[in-house]
Each structure stands twice: as C-alpha cells, then as structure tokens.
Amino acid sequence: MWIPTEHEKYGVVLASFRGTVQHGLPLEIGDTVQLLEKCEGWYRGFVHKNPNAKGIFPCTYIHLKNAHIKNKGQFETVIPTEDSVITEMTSTLRDWGAMWKRLYVKNDGDLFHRLWHVMNEILDLRRQVLVGHLTNDRMKDVKQHITARLDWGNEQLSLDLVPRREFSMVDPDEISVTELFKLMEHRHRKKETPVPASTHHLFVHMKSLMSSNLGEELEVFFHIYDGRENRPLSERFFVRLNKNGVPKSPEKTERQCTLFVDLGSSDLRKDVYIVVHIMRIGRMGAGEKKNLCSIQYRRPFGCAVVSIADLLTADSKDDHLLKVYACTTESEWYQIHENIIRKVNSRYNLSGSNTGLAVSLQLLHGDIEQLRREYMVLFTRGVSITKKLGFSDIIMPGEMRNDLYMTLEKGEFEKGGKSVARNVEITVYVLDIEGQVMKSYVAAGSGEPGGDVYHSFVLYHNNSPRWAEQIKLPIPVDMFRGSHVRFEFRHCSTKDKGEKKLFGYSFVHLMQEDGRTLPDGTHELIIHKCEENANLQDSSCYLKLPFSKANLPGNNQAVKGTKECFWITSFLCSTKLTQNGDMLDLLKWRAHPERINDSLLKLKEIDGSEIVKFLQDTLDTLFGILDESSQRYGLKVFDCLVHIINLLQDSKFHHFKPVMDTYIESHFAGALSYRDLIKVLKWYVDRIIDAEHQDHIQQVLNATEYIFKYIIQSRRLFALATGGQSEEEFRCCVHELFMSIRFFLSQENKITSPITQTQAVFLRTFPAVYGELLKIFTVREVAGFVRETLGSLPATARAECPLEAVKLHCIAKTVESQLYTNTESRCILLPVVLRLLQAHMQEQRDLVMCARILTSMLSLVRKYDSTATEPVVSEEVDLIVDSLLVVLMRTILEITNRPQAAGTNMRLQFQDITGEFVACLLALLRQMSDKHYQQLLQAFTSKDDLRDFLLQIFTVFRILIRPEMFLKDWTVMRLVTNNVIITTVLYLSDPLRKNFLNDKFDYKVWDSYFYLSVIFINQPCLQLESFSPSKKKRVLEKYGDMRVMMGCEIFSMWQNLGEHKLNFIPAMIGPFLEVTLVPQPDLRNVMIPIFHDMMDWEQRRSGNFKQVEAKLIDKLDGLMSEGKGDETYRELFNSILLKKIERETWRESGVSLIATVTRLMERLLDYRDCVKLGEVDGKKIGCTVSLLNFYKTELNKEEMYIRYIHKLYELHLKAQNYTEASYTLLLYDELLEWSERPLREFLNYPMQSEWQRKEYLHLTIVQNFDRGKCWENGIILCRELADQYESYYDYRNLSKMRMMEASLYEKIMDQQRLEPEFFRVGFYGKKFPFFLRNKEFVCRGHDYERLEAFQQRMLNEFPHAIAMQHVNQPDQTIYQAEAQYLQIYAVSPIPESQDVLQRDGVADNIKSFYKVNHIWRFRYDRPFHKGTKDKENEFKSLWVERTSLTLVQSLPGISRWFEVEKRELVEVSPLENAIEVIENKNLQLRMLIAQCQSRQMQNINPLTMCLNGVIDAAVNGGLARYQEAFFVKDYIVNHPEDGEKIGRLRELMFEQAHILEYGLAIHEKFVPQDMRPLHKKLVDQFHVMKSSLGIQEFPAYVRASPVHFTNGSPRSSCRNSVPNIISPDGARVVARRSPLTYPAVNRYSSSSLSSQASNEVSNITGQSESSDEVFNMQPSPSTSSLSSNHSASPNVTSSAPSSTRGSPQLQDKHKHSRENSCLSSRERPVSAIYPNPLDPAQRATPHQTGDTTLPRSDPNLSAPDKVRPTFSSWSLDSVKEVNNTQFSDTVGKLLCPPVPPRPPYPGSSAKPIRSQSPVPTSRSPQKSSLPPFTPSPTECQSAGLVSNSPVLSGSYSSGISSMSRCSVSEASGTEATTGDHSAHQGPTMPNSVSSGSDELIRRENKTPPPYSVYERTNPRRPVPLPHSLSIPPSVDPPALPPKPHQQRTSSMKLVPASDPRRADGVPHVPRPRPLPRKVSQL
C-alpha cells in the first residue's frame, strides 16, 4: 500500500535507473527527486527538472537529504536544508553542464577547457565544504573562492549576475529593492572597475652579469634613486656573484630576489630610477698578476641605471639587459649614476661592448598582504624585503621599525709621509655600552644577513676619497643608549705583502645624554690618529674624546684646525626613538614645570610622525596638565588636543584613529575633563559671530567628533566614580552648548562669508556626534537635539550656496546613522529630512546625494516592515508618498530625458543616480498597500491632476522597461521591476476605468496604458521560452508568467472600451499583433480574439475592414522577419478567428482576410527559415521570389514589393547569379519613368529625381548583364540610355554609352559562353516549405554543373530529403507523406527563337545565346515498346513518350528555377521517331560539310567520323532496319494514315544519300594522305548503301533543287526544309532536328530499352561502336536518376559533354570526332535544333511553317492547293540562290519587327499601325508559311529584350512589369487571345507587319522600344503621390533643353508580339486581371 512520505521528501539519485518496470520513472545519476509516496522498498515521485512526469523507482537508488517543506500538501515545495552556497553550486553546475557541451559543439575550445577546469575546481571545493572538517576561517576562504568561481563562470557564459550577501544568494523578496540595487551595483563595480592601488612594489630578480673580463667575485647593489632630489629612496639590495657572474647561492632565492616595498604613486615617475652599483673583490688593479698580493679589496667595477617609467610601458614579465658603465676617473665613482642620468658622457664609458646585467623587473600593485595572497609562490619560495628610506605614505599603527642608515660620504687625509696618496679603506664596527662589538648589526643591504664589520671599497691613491656608501644598522631600541659606531681607517699597500695599516679612527655616539638620538643629517667627524698596532679594544680610552667638530669646545683650536676629517650622513627611521627635544620636553613636563607653556606652544611645530609615535604618552601628558592646571593651561591644552585630532584626519595618519579610539575607551582617565572641554568649546562657539578670523574656530569645529568623545567618556567616568552626581549640571551644560550652536547656525550670511564656511564645517562633523550623545541621552532627546539643530538652519538658501550641499550631506549622514534606525527617532526626524529632500529634488539640485538619502530611507522601511511596528511603517510610507512620489517620478523623467553629458564620468554618474532613483521608486511602490493607493488617488483634487499623474507614471514605467535601464545580466532586478509594475498597473486600471470612460473618455491616457502593456509583454527578460529549464522554473515559482497576467488585463480593459475601440483602430493593431506573436499559448488565446473585435467594429463604422487588413499585413512582415511567430501561431490565428466569425454577416470577407493573412504568414515563415541558413542557396532565393510575387499580385504592396526586390538582388549578387540579379533589379527599374519627379531617400538610394534613379538602375543592370555574359540584354538597355542622353544633348555620356554598347558586341563575338544544363526537380511531401510543396520546377544549372553535381547540391540543401529513383509521376501517398521526396532529371530546352538558330551565316557565338535564353518550354523523352516486341527489328515497336513542360516564367529570370505551369504528354510513333532521327542526322552532316567547306574546321576528323558512322551503319543494316520496319507491304496496309510519313521517310533517306555523296566529294578534297584508304573504303560502302536503298540516280526533284552552297557554305535554309508532317491524330514530331538532339544513350531508362534495342538505335542513327558516337532519341534520365550507375558504360556520355564545356576556346570544340559526337543539341552550331514542338492543335502556327526555300508556290494558297515537288533544299549543282523577300500578311502577326535605323530627319515617331490581315487558322499540317524571324540585337528594329522572347515579356522573369501590369500569361492569355488581335490591342499595338509596313517602321520608329511589352501595352494611369513617399519640389524644376524628337513618348510604345507559346484555339488557364498601373514612388 502506498503511504505518503512524512520526512523522506528530498533525495539525490545515486545510480541511473532505466525505469523499465510498469510506471517506472527513468532516473539519471545526480538528479534530484521529490518523494511523494513509499511502498515496500519503492518510492513514487518526480524529478525536479521535469515535475510533470511522475513514476516509481527503488529506494536503494536514492540518497535522502534533509529538506524544509513549504505549503505542505498537494502543492508543497521542498527546499533542501543545506548551505545556500552548496545549493547554488549544485544548480549552477547543472546549468553549466548543458552549456559546456554546447561549447564543444560550437568549437569554442578555449572557454570549453577553462570552464572544465573551473567546474572541477568547484566540485573539489564542494567536497571540502560537505565534509565539514574546515575551520571557520578556512570555510570562509573556501566559500569566497567558490562564489568567485561561480561569478566568473556566469560572466563567461553570459548568465545572470547573482546578488549575494556574505557568499549566500539573496532572495529579492526578503530585502528592499534599494538594497538589492546596491548589492547588484556593488557586485558589478567589483567586477568591472578595480580600485587603483595606491601602494606599489618593485620585484627584482638578479640573474647574471655577462662580461668578457670577469674572473673575480662581484657584489651588486640595487637601490631606487630620486633623480629630481638627487637622493636614494630605498635601502640597498645586496647580491653576491661568483667568478662566472651568477649568484653565489642559486638555491637561496631570497638572496637573488627582492621586493622594493611601499612605493607611492608619486614615486612612479620618469625621474625615479633603479640604480645598480657593482663592486669587484680582488686585486687593487684589474690587470695585476695574481702572485703579487693575497689580500683582496673591494674595488669599483661598473654602474647601470634604468628608469621606473620604462617598467610601466614594458611587458610585466620582461627580462631586461642593463648596460654597465665604468668611470673615466675613479674619483668620480660616487656620482657615476648621476652622470649617467644626466648623460655626461665624458665622465663614463661602457665597461665592455658585451657587458650587460641580466635582471627581471616587475611592478606589482596593492598592499603587501594582497600580494602575499596573489603571489603565494613568490613568498613561499623566498624573497627579501627591501624597505623604503623613511616611512611609507600611510603609517600603520603597530608597525615596528628601528633602522639607522649611515652613508660614508667622504674623507680628507694627509699623505702621512708618503710620496703618493693613500689607498684608504674604512672598517665599521658597532659597539654597545660596554664596548663590545655588536654581532650581525652591520648590513650592506637586504638580501644578505648582517655582519659584525663592514669594509668600504678602496679608491686607488686618493687622499680625498668619496665613497657615498650606505650601510644599515638595525640596532634594537633597548641597545641604542650608550652604543656608538667606530670607523677605522687603513692604508692598503700594493706591495708584495699587501698589508692594511691602521693610521686613524673616528667614532660617533648613537644617543645623546638627554635621550635624543643622533640627529639626521651630515656629521663631520674628527679623525683621531693612532699607531699601526694601536689597540682599540678598550673603547673607554677614546669615548671621552670629542667625536665631532660641531661638539668641540671653542678653545680646542688644535683639533679644529686639523685637515683630516671624515663625513657621514645619518638617517633614523624609528617608531620608538625620537630626535626631537621639544617632544622630550613635553613628555617630561613634570621635571621642568616652567617649560610647560613653551612645550605646549611648540607641539604644533613637531612633525606629525613624531607625535603619532608617542600618541598615548602625549595624550596622557595633555590631560595630566589639564587636570592639574586647568585654569592656567586649559585653553592651550584644548588647542593642542584639537591639533592632534586634526592631525589624524591626514591620510598619512588616518590609520591612527583606531589607536585614539582605543585610548579613549581603555586608557583615558580624565574624569573631570568634560567640564573644561565643554566650557572651552562653548567659548569658541560663542565667539564665532564676532571673530574676524575663523580659521582656528573651524579647526576646533572640525575636531568636534573626538571632543565629544572625550566629553562623554569623561562624564561616564565621573558618573561611575561618583554614582551619577552633577547629572543635571551636565545636561544643562550640553543644552546651553547646543543653544549656542543653534544660534550660530541660524545666522544668514553672504555666500562668501567666513561664518557660512564655519557653519559648513560644523555640519560636516555634526552627524558623528549622535552616537556619542546616545551613550548618555535617550533616543528621543538626541533626536530632539538633531531636529532643532537642523531646523535652525536658514530655510531660504540659494542654490549656489555651498552650505546647501553640506546641509544635504549632513542629512545623508543622519539617515545613515544609528540614530535614524530607531523607529522613535525616525518619526521625529522624518519630516525634517523630507522637507529638505523635497526642496532639493524639486529644484533638481544635488541629485546624487538625494538618491543616496532616499535609498537609505527606503532600505530601512523594508527592513522593519515585518516587525511589530507595522502601523508606524505605514505612516512613514504615507509621509514619503505624499512628499516624494510625484517629485521622484518627475526627477526620473528629467534625468532620462536629459542629453548625455560629454564626459564619461558624468554619463556614468547620471546612469548611477538614475538606477538609484528607479530603485527608490520601485521600493516605494512595493511598500504601498491598498490604503496608500486610495489615499494617493483621493489626494488629487481634479481629474486633470489624476490624468497627469497616470500619464507620468505610465511614462516612467515605459522608461523602466527599456533594455538599457539595467545591465544585461541584471535579470533579478528586471524581474522585481516588472513585478512592481504589473502590481501597480492592476491598482491603477480601476481609476482609469472609472474616470476616463464614456463621456469622460481620454484617448491619451488609454493609449499610454495600452502602449505600456504591449512593451511590458514584449520585454526580452519575460520571454521564458529563452530561459534554461531551471531558470524558467524559478521565475514561474516566484512570479508566475507576468505576460499572461498583463494580457488578461489588456483584454479586460479592451472589453470595457465599448464604442471607444474605434479610436484605437488601426493604431493598436500592430502592437496587439506583436503581443499575439509571443510564443505563449494562453496569451495568444486571450489576445487573438481582439482582432475579431476590431474587424467587427471597423465593419460597423466603414462597411469593411480594409484598414485592419492593411495594418495586419504591414506589420506582419517586419515582426516575422525579426524572428517572431511560428507555425503554431499561424494555425491558431486561423482557427480562432474563423471560429469567431462563423455567425457574422460579413463572414465571407472575413474568411478572405484571414486566408490572405494566413498565406502571407506561410510565406514569411518560409522566408525566415530560409534566411537563417548561412549561405545563399536556391531555397532562400525561391522563397524570396515567392514572397515578392505575393506582395505584388495578391497584396499590391508596392513598398514591400520593392524591398524584397532588393533583398532578392542582394541574394543573387552574393551567389554570383549576375544574370538573375539583373532581371531582378529590372523589376524596380520598370516601375520608374524617365521623369524629373523627386523621389525620397529609400533603402540605399539618396534623395534624387526619378530620371537619375532610373539611369543608375540601368547602368547597374547593364553591368550585371555584362558580368553574367548576357550581353544581348545589356545592349538593349544601352540603347535606351543612349536615347535619353541624346534627347538631353548629353553627348559625353552618349559617347560612353555607344562605346559600352560596342564593347558588348565585341564580347559576344570574342568571348566563350558556357551553355547551362537544365534540370526538372519535383518536391513532394508535406515537409517541404509551402512555396515548394508538391510542385515541380525547372532549374538552370550552374556553369560546369552536371546532373550528378546538381543532385548532390539539392540533397545538401535538403538534407532530410529522400531521392526518388524513378521518373514517373508520384501518387497521392507521396504527396501526403510527412516526409520530403526529391525527383530530379535533366530536361532539354526548346528555344523560341528558331529563325535565328535556323539562319545560315549567323555565328555560333550568337546562336548559343538563343539556345538557352528566353526558354519557356522544356522536353524530356522516354523510349518504350508498345505491343509485341520484334526481336529481329525492335524499331517496329519503339515508341517515345515525350513530356513537355511549360514554365510560369522563362529562364533565365529573377530566379534560377521556376515552377512548371503546364505539363503535356504525347507519344511519338516509331515511324515519326525514325523521321526525326534521320532528319537530325542530315542536319548534322550539312553543318559539318559547311564547316569543312568554309575552312572553319581545322581538323577533318569530325566529318570523317560522322561519314563513317552513317555509311557504316547503313551498310550494316541501319537504314535497312527502317526499310524492313516501315516500307514493307504489311505496315503500309495496316497503317494507311502513315502514307505521307512513309513518303517523308523515303525522301529523307534519299536526301541523306545525296548529302553523303556531296560530303564524300568534299572529304576527298581535304582528306590527308594517310586517311586515303579509309576514304576509299567509305566510297565503296556508300555505293553498297545506295544499292541497298535501290538508288541508281537521284530523283529529279533532288537534282533540280535550287539550293546550293554559297561561299563554300550550304545556304539552304535548314530551318524550313520540311514542314511538320504529323497528322492531327498522330504524335507530335518536331521536324528538322539535328541528330545531336539525342546525344546520349545514358538517358534511356535501363528498364525501358534493352541493350539490343540500344545497339540497333545506334546503328539506325548512324552510330559506330568504334567511333564512340552516341546519338539517341532525346535526353532522358536514367531510371536511377539520382545515382551514378549509368556512368559505368564507356559508350555512355553525360547529359552534356564536358569536353566542349570545359574547352577554353570555342573554335577548338570540333577538334576531335569524339568531342563533336558528344556535343549536345545546345552546344552545336546547327541551324535549328527544335523549331518549336507543339501539340496537334498548335502545329499550324507560323512558328512551325517553312520558309521561302520550299517550292515556289503562292503563299496565299490553301494547304490542299499547295504542291511540294521537291523536298531537299540541298543541291550538288551550283544553282542561283532564290531570294524570296515577299512576306505573307498571315505571318506578320508573329514577326519580331527589326530595329529601325536612325531616321534621316528629326522629330519622326513610330505611327500606330493596325494589323492588315487577320491570321487564318491553319487547317493542314502541310500549311506552309514564313517562319518567325527573330533578329539579333544587331538588327534594326528590336522588340527589346522580349519582343519575341517570352522570357522578357512583361518583366524579365517574374512576369511583373510594374505594380499594375499583368504577368506574361495575362498578356498571352487574356489580352492577346487568338483571333482578331487588333480588336484587343488598339491602334498603337499592331499585330502583324507586312513587308511594306516593315520599311515604315524602320524609317519612323527612331527610339528602340523598351524591354517590356506590358510596359508599353498598358496605358499609364497617373497616381497621386502620397506625402509619405515623395518630396514635393520646393521650386519648379529647371526647363529641359529642347528635345530633338517631340514625339518620343509615343515612340517608346512597343509593338507587341504574340506569346510564342500560345497558338490559336489552344485553351489556356486565365490569369488574374492586371492591377491598375501605379508608378513607383520609391
């Protein structure tokens, strides 16, 4: 039985549990679980990270922990009762763990590894804390370390800043908002702005001396030297080096490393140096022989200097190599460092070119204890401390130091009977009072231990040596008295023995008899002569002698006159000894009472460091004198006391204040002193007003704090001693003192008055007195003193008065004092504080101090609100609200609206006080209860005041919500702010409803309310979806989802508005839409119905809701592009609103709106998902095209349409799709006119005229067409620009444009262009985006991209897609599948411009453009067998399934792929297939023969291989197979309808034989000698072939054919050799194909055609196995179209051979026969590839008709009357070429008129031409008429880019010519229907042009028509320009120069061409009606 757990509530999982049992809950190790029930060794509960999933798990898997239970019961919360640091550590590490793994995925290796180390470190520390064996101090250190690491990790991972107090997290609800702000700010400042250190230290590590002339031991001395004052700043650091120049004791690091400590900031300047002196220890002369002398001397070696400033700029760990210099003369050694600093080069030189001192120097900052923590290794390893000479800038109490520094300066010696000067060495001893040498008290410097004796260095032959050597004598204080220092002087002989001979001595006493030590300064000592062997052991024999010339009695002239002297300089640094006699006199005042007066006066002159040394003794002395002689010395003692108190205010002695405090508490014994102190203090206060000089009085008042401390302590001692006597007397004295103070404070004076300054001095020190008064007086009494004192201040003070700031500072100190924390005193003081605070805040003065005061006040309010003083706190809140709430809000508004100050410090200051004021406001609002709100609202006397208040507070709240209000990681503070805001808004919504609705409605207040609510919900800090699960859980537990609360409030308030809702339509649509896009289901359910309400009210007002629709659409784009909204929202929006409008009368229009918005969301979501991808791909471009077209066609949103045009343009440029980029930009270009209308600045375009922008667009488009090698299109734009320049007589730009046009022509002829492959792609399945789902597209491949590469690219773009392995249309299961299926195969383009391709003499470079541009239709053929398959001859049953795909727009266009609009499937019979194959082979032969004959072919091999392939295949049964299949009697009888086709096949066979014969003749002429045998074989086989065909001689119609080769080139028009002969019932066969139309066997499905059939196809089509030629039916993908299996066969070629595409030069592409045989249909320069295969109903259009080289029949005859006597257009005889220039009117309608030449006269214009004859319906497939004639851009009359190329009709690829023009299908299907075209198109748009009218057009139409047919067919409707989109010209535009052609506007109209894709009578799907023309205003 399951029993609820009582105490077992919380546990941690010890091992992972899979949960495989019934109701089992899977657990992971480390999870925390909450236990609900228990049963027989099993628990039931849930894991905290997923509380919704409950289950059971074994008890043994859980480690129980103690926990505290809140809200026991169903909704209980369990909190583990463990250290809060442990709890935080655990949750933080869990969050870090997930983020740590993501760092690995992001490849952020550095942070990954650092975080890993920190996490391990935290885990180790956590173990230490959990074990519980740490001491309190160690525990504190560990916790501090843990929190520091946690904060570091949170900062690195951009997590929230955690407010802490003493290492524990703070609950924001438990403290005031002001306290929370201070904690956050403190932690931020601690993290961001480290306090600059005032103390600095120099670390020195001596490494080595590098020199070539070493060999002796060295001594190196470092010290810091002040170059400005020429004195050392520190003692010396001493290192001994061995003979190799490295430290003698490398294992003792303290002997080679030191820390120069206590450098002040003033010491880090350029003229402070590190000076290094180096001594050698050895012979007198560096070059002396070793055996001369065994005694060693200290001799100068060299000196090095480096500036401290160099270390500030260098790397902190730099090693320095210091140059070592030597003296020029030894006597200058004492000042060598000064010479180096001053750069007196004549006195020193380098001691050696390679001599250098290697040292490591590093500056460290902070106090020494901090350094010990940070550089623990340094101190544990060992480092000597080198002290500063003198005390540091800050003297710490308890610091013990007693160092005497002596400098051996110089000496004057006599020769002593020598001929040369002496070599003098000084030996120094320290002797105690008994004359014994003191051991280890002579030190050369730090680094080496002190010794018993010190030897100076020796200067060679110098009787006036100057040493300047400093030694340190660290003698203990108790040994100073009676001690002396002795200096012995010896001459060092350089003779063989090298003796040191004593010749004199000096000495000096360290302490005088009166207790004063040796004074600092230079002392001239007497040198007492002595014998060489004199015994100085007995010091008593010389101590009675004089030691200094200064101390000699006046009658001792003999000693004074001696020349021999010795100078030393002494400096004492002692905390116990003094050299000051005045100090000693004062301390010994009892011994000399007569000196008391003088001693008290001289105290002020004594150095402060001397006073603080003897602080306690000095104070005892002063109070002793006061007790004994108060009447006589009271005033002087008081003044001395004031002097000492003020001395401690100095920063140098500030740390001695605690010493004085300790003295007052523990040592002070002046029980009677209070009377004298009060009396003297009152005397001074009473004299303030009358005194002329206030300086001394101000010093007295500055010491008020400590004077009161002495007064109070003295009174307490007196009361303790006497049992409280004289209490009333004392109180009376204090009251009188305060009366005097109040009187002097109440005086009003001038600002500059000294009394005002004295008042300010008192106010600064007054708050420090409160605590002392509380020791004797009650809280109320002290509060009364303070209130009366502060109340006595003059009230009417001016702002500029300095007293005002001091007054406020005093208030701040008062509020922060202990006195104010008491509730009783606070009630007394609060009115005074509020009055002063309010006055300052109203005048915006001293805001920083005001913020500080307010923060302290409100912190106390929060602190005491939960105690028994609740009514008192409520009263305080009342007072603060009444006085400060409105003022506080106004202050916040003024600060935030104030312009930013220039200085960074000012900016930070304002930012800080803004935060403090905000925290104060939040704290105050959080304290307000219902009662406070009621009182506040009742206080407003008028509605205007209430309105102003509401507007003000709503505005302030909007400011608080700003992201910049708090730092990014202050989420805790933001959540508290939002909680306060929503609580306050809920309180204020009721008065808003009551006071500002119905007839009292106020739009501004309600608008402010809604605006605040919307931005509140949209705050980033409230978007819980972006939080980690643990953070989200914490926020929800503490605050709930505040967005939903605010959303419900918005809905409630909206419902209350009633008819006033109309005021917010459509203004609030955008904001509310933004709210509904927040991914919170409850919020969406609440807010979406508001849109229904808006639609309903708008419908009532206007009869429609167009405004709602327009606003929704406008806002959706921007919001969704920002990442808002999702698929769930789209579905929810649709379902909720559809449900809401079910019963509305306007349901239909509502459904339409909802559908439109939903479709827009679909596209926007797709677009956003695509844009998130990193690189440009087809999906992103396709999505942009879809959205662009949607804005154009469905929404008519011009601005959005243009924006997406430019987005698409940028995508194309990024992907280097330059052609597509040009077409895209043309869409915008087409919206503009050549006018001077001004356009506003838009996107990246400046403010300019419409003409300028269109010019810029034209130039940009031409540039991109050039880069995309689409030069033909660029030429047309060049012409249009040239016309514009010409019309303005801008000949300079005109010439540039003509040159550009010429360069484009040159590029057409000279540069190679690659022909792209085209691929059909089907996207099936519901997982594709909307714009792709279950649609098929044709895509233009990239350069060199073949099928396999394209397939791989598509699979990379759609990594989840499945490749379909067949080409059949998928069924419905695939369409509806929740997956992605891709079906890809190659297709062949069907060019529209057949006349260009069929025309002879046109260069291949020109034709190549028309083969793959302006393509609407594509074809795919699949062979299959129908009926019984004849194994002997498969061609009898070999049919072809031909699929034709028609696109919505032509390729290339604004995208690389377009959707398939129409799909047609026909079957081609075997006979028709055979006709196509032979016909195409004939075309190929003609082309090769023509190339060979015109010498275009450098190599004859391609012709050889082709002849061989055809003749050999025919001999071996190729054509015979056709004869067997189709010429037999059975076939003719069974297929009577094919009689004409059989005849056609026979004619083609004869024609092929005729061509072969002519080809062999040409071949014989050019064949090389080595190939003659092959040629002979071919001739023989050809005769066999003719015999097999039964040809003895060619028929007459072949011989009589008037076609011949002109200039060696077959000039017959291959384009019109045969009309289409397929009957209406048969399959469509496209005539006049080159065999290369079918280039590859691999396009056959492996399952469709057996290998035998493939071989036979090869034979019939003239393929030879040996020649590797592969000619097939039509490119058809393999069954495994997405695999590469088909590439295995060596005879299989790819869909487009790489040999040609990869060839660098176009003329090389026919170099080899294999290359030629593999050419695709689009790569060969044939005359015609695909004329235009159409369905049977379309066959008779003029595109499929022949031309003039067919039999000379009347073109106007009907089809049955026409006779075709000849078929072949080739003749081997040279016959005159017939030029038929007569064009039929029936063809005129589809002619593309040529570009007209320039008219010979100005002013001509194209005149409207009507169609002169309608186009008759073709009734017969033999109908012969002239073919369409598509000129190149070089011909005279051009229809622009699109006259006969549907790809450019309307717009370049999107079908959009302007915002109002119809798409391509509209033009072709709606406005250009077959029939009477003239009836539809009006007079300016002729449909047919006869040859007669042709001249007219050429002559009159000067201006080349633009590129868009629809631009010219639809008359422009002027649209008024909205003010928002245009800039009205301030003045009339300047007059233009007269134009040469007045009728240019009419000439710009384009003669439209019919859509070549459509034929008469073909049904089509009607397209949407064209939108009204709207000229772009952008």
Low-pLDDT windows of residues: 864-869, 902-910, 1596-1977
Q: Strand-residue fraction?
A: 5-15%
Helices, by number, come to 67
Helix content: 40-55%
Q: Based on Cα principal axes, name the global outline.
A: extended
Largest sheet: 6 strands, antiparallel
Please give a structural write-up.
It is a single chain. The C terminus is likely disordered. The strands form eleven sheets. Strands 1, 2, 3, 4, 5 and 6 form a six-stranded antiparallel beta sheet that branches. The two termini are 78 Å apart. The protein is of the alpha+beta class.
Topology diagram in text:
Elements: E1 3-4, E2 10-13, E3 32-39, E4 42-47, E5 50-58, E6 62-65, E7 67-70, E8 77-80, H1 84-106, H2 109-131, H3 136-156, E9 164-165, E10 168-169, H4 177-192, E11 199-210, E12 217-226, E13 231-232, E14 237-241, E15 257-264, E16 272-282, E17 297-307, H5 308-313, E18 319-323, E19 325-327, H6 336-342, E20 348-350, E21 356-365, H7 368-374, H8 376-381, E22 384-386, E23 402-412, E24 424-431, E25 453-455, E26 466-473, E27 484-492, E28 500-509, E29 521-526, E30 528-529, H9 540-543, H10 557-560, E31 565-574, H11 581-587, H12 596-602, H13 608-613, H14 615-628, H15 630-647, H16 657-667, H17 673-686, H18 695-702, H19 704-722, H20 727-745, H21 754-765, H22 770-773, H23 779-791, H24 802-816, H25 818-821, H26 823-842, H27 847-863, H28 870-897, H29 904-927, H30 930-938, H31 943-961, H32 971-995, H33 1003-1017, H34 1029-1039, H35 1042-1057, H36 1069-1076, H37 1081-1087, H38 1089-1102, H39 1106-1121, H40 1127-1140, H41 1147-1171, H42 1178-1195, H43 1198-1214, H44 1218-1229, E32 1238-1239, E33 1248-1249, H45 1250-1267, H46 1271-1287, H47 1291-1310, ...
Parallel strand pairs: 15-22, 36-37
Antiparallel strand pairs: 1-3, 2-3, 2-6, 3-4, 4-5, 7-8, 9-10, 11-15, 11-21, 12-13, 12-14, 12-16, 16-17, 18-21, 19-20, 23-26, 23-31, 24-25, 24-27, 27-28, 28-30, 29-31, 32-33, 34-35, 34-37, 35-40, 37-38, 38-39, 39-40, 41-42
